[in-house]
Structures are given as C-alpha cells and as structure tokens.
Amino acid sequence: MAPKITIVGGGSTHWTPRLLIDFANTPSLHDATVALTDIDEDSLPRMLTVAKHVTSTRGIGLEVTASTDLASALDGADFVISAFSVGGFAAMVHDIEIPARFGIRQPVGDSVGPGGISRSLRSIPVLLGIAREIERVAPDALLLNVSNPLSALCRAVTAETGVRTVGLCNELIGLQFWLSLVFDADMRRIDPVVAGVNHFPLVTSLRIDERDGFALLQDVLDHPEQLEGQPLWMNPPAASHWHKLDPGREWSKADVVANNRLKLAMFRRFGVLPGAADTHIAEFVPWFVQPATDFGRTWGVHHYGIEGHRADKADDDTYAAELEAGGEIPAWPSGELAAPLIDAVVTGTTRHLPVNLPNTGQVEGIGAGSVVECIGTIDGAGVRPRDVASPGPLTEHLRRVVTAHELTVRAALSGDRGTVIEAMLADPVAGSLPWASVEAMTDALLEATAPWLPAHR
C-alpha cells in the first residue's frame, strides 16, 4: 500500500516543492498521500497549486492535502518530515548579529556556536510538541527531521520520546559531488565511512571506484600541478559560492581543490576528512574564522549573514512561483534524501545513505545515545548504522561538540539560564570568549529571542 507522508512546515517554499518533485520522480511514491501542515494558513494554497501542477503534468495519483490541524495531518502517517524554522528571520537576525558584537562571526549561524544554541532553545520545544503528537496519533511513523539545528533537535526527540527519528542532510552528497569533479568518478561509486555529527561529518576512510580515496586525495595534494587546466565534467552550481583561481579561465580541477582547502588542511593534519562545506566546518572549530584571516575569508569561507539567508529565501520563493505558474518540472533528483530513504523502506531496496541516529557504538569514543552522523543501511527493516568507525585525533574535539549538544537539549527542556551558559562554554567557538562575554552574550540572546522562548530562569 502506498504510504502517507506528512510534511510539518508544509508551506515552506524551500522544502515542499523539492520534496513533491522528488516524490513525483520516485515510482513507488506516485500513489502516496502527502499531507501538508503549517501554522501559516496563507502559505498552504500556494503549495497545493504547485502540487496540482506536479501531479497533473506527470499524470500520477499522488494525493496532496493541506491543513493547519496537526493531529489530522499526522493521523495514519507512515513518515513525517519536519521542516520548519521557529521565529524565521525575525529571530535569526539575533542569532547572527548579537554574537558578532562579541567578536564571533558565524558564517551560517544555524547549527552550533551561539547562533545554533539560540536556535535550538526555541526549536526544541516545538519539535517535541510535534513528536508527542506523533506518539499519540501515529506511533509507528518514522520521523525524518531536516530542520536545523539538526543534531540537537533529533537528540531531544530521541531522549524524550519513543518516536523513531532520523536526521537527514545532504552535505555528504556535496562531498561526493566535488570528489567526482576532481577524479572523474561516478558519484555513486564514491563511498565514505563517516563518524561525526551533522555539518561536521568526519570521513575516516574513502573508496572511489574501489580505489583508496585517501591515497588518491593525498597524491593530488602532494602534486597539485597535475590539476592545473584539467577541465570538469560539470561546472559547480552558483549556490556553492565557489570562486575561480583565475576568473578569466574556465573552471578546472585546481579550482575545486582550492575551494575546499579548509577541510583539506584538516585532512592533512588529522588524517580524517570533514565532509561538509567549509562554511559549515568553520563553525565547529575555533581555528579559521579569526581576525587574522579576515574571519575565514582567506580560507574561502563564505559568510551568509542575514542578508544571504534572505536572498536564499527569495530564490526559493521565485522558484515556487515559477512552478505555480506552470514551470518545468525537473526529472533529476534534488539531492535531498527523504525520497530515496522512503523509497528504500517502502520497496525493501537496500540503500546506503548519510543519516543522523542515536549512537549505539557506530562512532567510537562518543557517548551512547548522542545523535551522530554516519552512513546508514536503509531497507524494508528500517534504518540502522552501516559501519563502526573512530574519529581518530578529532575524537576529543567531537566529544566537546556533542557535550554542547547534550547541554543545549538539557537547557531547552529545563529553561535554566545556567545550563544555557554551560552549553555556550562547552561549545568550541562560543567557549573561546572570555567568561564575562559568554554570560553577557547569552543574556543578550535570551532577551532578544524571548518572544519565541519558554521562560528561562
């Protein structure tokens, strides 16, 4: 029987059009029921128009409904996708601008560091409310969380409820993409072993077309001249925010390496390869986004700032509007992982995808239960870790990141100001500030974002 998929935050112009098209490109989901639910009633009619265009153009039986009633949208769901942002830009501007006043320039500000902790405090209670409703009306559903801060949100649900939960992020798909550019390899033939957390997944070994990917990468780093002028099978998308070494020439493999130099420096030092974009990785370590490096820009770190986030939203709105008006429906996947994961479970097809799950030993040196990122095996039996791996020299650093996650969840549940400060001190970047600055920054964030927070004492 075709599944029912509920999208919480279904009015999102970023997530819903992409997910609906992915479902339309997945034969096993052609007759699925998709229930969109959102607290913003005005956002839903647009998505129903997009859905009608997708289903009628493709001639499929995908049934899409919309409601502001969470319980009815969840009733009978097999899969629930959580895709929301509490407070939107009105809240996020504080996550970025207040830490900047204290000297912390966050390239993204949505996962870790002071911005990620602040966002967690207002998002965790909301997701827990959704999860408890899932327990009540759809206890067998699988929750697929794509909202940030992904690690802390998933950890809160797995710690406080019995809802089966998987965090999904496509950063490792980006890793496979740029490696395919450098080595002319099929992305599907690039297989990493991963032991990390979301936006800081640490690749501990790598196969590329059955070859040792680390050895290939080391050779490229030892002999960079071999990449000069070597063309790419595909130019990088504008959304990557990459820059050519020579703007007057065509893209080359040397450009790809240059635009990943932060993670490659860490690979040469530690022997493990951070698998997310450098812009994300820089927020997990205190070594790169510093005044001496123009806050990471000499490393190629792209800073979104609130205006960059607004620009991305404007692009999403434009794309949704084009689909509403009858625009072309792509036949290729978006790169998001919800549809392939659901398809694997529904059809029993075995797939190996990046997933965020409670640690049951797949990441050595990290406490049991903490949410970690790994490669998962997905099939008719569900989702489970594929590998057991160690982050090696970065284990202690990763443990500190996970400790900050755990304290953040505890702070969101307790409403205790002191625990928020402890989470900030544990975070490798926020905790690099002087003690008094951590306290002052925390108080400023709590005061500015109070409209979206439970009371903190």
List the helices and strands and how they pair.
Elements: E1 4-8, H1 15-24, E2 33-37, H2 44-58, E3 63-67, H3 70-74, E4 79-82, H4 88-101, H5 113-137, E5 142-145, H6 150-160, E6 164-167, H7 171-183, E7 190-194, E8 202-208, E9 211-212, H8 213-222, H9 253-258, H10 261-270, E10 273-274, H11 278-281, H12 305-324, H13 338-347, E11 351-358, E12 371-379, E13 382-385, H14 395-414, H15 417-426, H16 435-448
Parallel strand pairs: 1-2, 1-4, 2-3, 4-5, 5-6
Antiparallel strand pairs: 7-8, 8-9, 8-10, 11-12, 12-13
Helix pairs in contact: 1-2, 2-12, 4-5, 4-12, 4-16, 5-6, 5-14, 6-14, 14-15, 15-16
Can you give a write-up of this model?
This protein has 457 residues and is α/β, with parallel strands linked by helices. The chain is built from 16 helices and 13 strands. The strands form three sheets. The chain has a six-stranded parallel beta sheet, with helices on both faces. Strands 7, 8, 9 and 10 form a four-stranded antiparallel beta sheet that branches. Helix 2 (44-58) packs across helix 12 (305-324), helix 4 runs antiparallel to helix 12 (305-324) and helix 5 (113-137) crosses helix 14 (395-414). It is globular and about 55 Å long. The N and C termini lie far apart (49 Å).
